[in-house]
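look at this one:
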Amino acid sequence: MTTRILIVDDQDEIRAGIRAMLRLDPSLVVAGDLSDGLQVVPYLRDHPVDLVLMDIRMPGIDGVEATRRIREEYPPEKLRVIVLTTFDQDDIVLAALRAGANGFLSKTVSPAELVAGITEVVGGGGALSAAATAALIGHMTDSPPPVIDRELLRRFDALTPRERDVVVLVASGLGNDEIAAQMSVSPFTVKTHAVRAMTKVGARDRAQLVSFTFRAGLYP
């Protein structure tokens, strides 16, 4: 199966660089590229794709607003969106995720990390760079402690002890490899536990799992 991708960035060299990185995986096909956020939804109506790689800072409208407009017409299960940017401030991360982005990756990721993030998101998961995860967690920890959501907490009761351990480590900002090393298991096992935990608590992706963990009072 191939994944059709639309690249949205106002810089020609960035779009060319992303195209070059995506050549690592022959299943990833660049269907087109745009330089203006206003062009995205009209383009998608005539050129269906599976995933949009979206910049934040662009003329017309920014990537957050473009993502919000995409979600008005295309649900997450029909079209995935990954925000690619050099900015990892917590307000930008939160705005992108609230607008409906499925992932948030820094433009400094390696080609292999970009391909892995796309594969994760297309497969129904979420992708957050280490910096984006840190920004999200920073926002949570810098905010006043929330009132514990008892309904969410009850959902976490369905987790096994291993799944709960993985969830807390995910919420602390660790990646699968780091969690695997800490727990002396394989990264695949960590991913399996995380996916099962997301299913049990109703989180659509890793970012929402982190949010649910804090709201349930299960702080790292």
